[in-house]
Each structure stands twice: as structure tokens, then as C-alpha cells.
Amino acid sequence: MLQAPANLPALTGDAAADAAALLRALMLAGPRWELGATGPAAFDCWSMARLIEAHLFARPLADVDARGPGLKGLAARGLRGARVWRERGGRELPAHGDGVLLTRPDERPHVGVFLALDRGLVAHMAEHQGFSADTLLALKTTGYRNPRFFEWRLVAD
Q1: Which CATH number covers residue 124?
Q2: CA dist list (Å): 25 to 7, 11, 28, 36, 102
């Protein structure tokens, strides 16, 4: 079960201000990375994406255990799992709240959330650096060359 750190900011209705306040709160909380952790003091990248999507956008992401077998494609399956995520085409620009799938050769998939702050940031929980919010250029320089973006959409039952 996902557990949020204490003292996350209340939402004001201003999407940019809410996202910036959440980033500040998470940076101050300083959660550590731990595979399979779901908070409040430690998260893996999937559980951090779940926390951000739930807090800012009231979007429930699937509860996926990243410790299980078959990690290849796990993040993409999780983003598509509830049939409410659509992968953006190659020429579509990411939007505030998009799920982001990041991959490097021979490493487990990595996920984050795109936030439309400062020309675009990806908020994510990295194994060797903890929680951060990085530009797409910064992510590319660390080896995440082809990010894939997933748009939330409402699907009628």
C-alpha cells in the first residue's frame, strides 16, 4: 500500500504552483530509493510515480511489484494496465502529468512524471541519486536517450 511522506502540501488548484510545492516537499523529505518500497521514507521509481500522479492528478496507477520476474516491459505494461494511458506519438510534445518511461540498455525500466515547470521536468526516483526533477536534456546526458510519454485519458466503461 502506498504511503505518502508527512507534510505534503495541500492542493490550491494552480497546477504549476501545486507541482512546484510538491517537488519542494519531496526534496525536503529526502526519501531514499529502495526497490519495492512504497513509502513513506523510501520509494522505488514506480511507487514515486504513483505518489505524484495520485497527489497532483488523483490518478490511480496500478500497484506493480518491481521486484518480481519479467521486468522488461513492466513499466510500459503498468502505464497501459488500466487502459487509461495512451502512448504519445514520436512528434507529440509531452504534457503536464504524462507518465514517462525511461530506458537504458541492459538496465531495468525507469519511470517518472513529466511536469510542465521550467520548460519541462521529469520528477523521478533514481536508484543512485534518490528523488529529483530533471530536464529531458539532463536525462539524455545520463543515458536515457529516448523517453516515451504516456497521456492519461478518460475511458468510458
Answers
A1: 3.90.1720.10
A2: 7, 13, 5, 22, 24
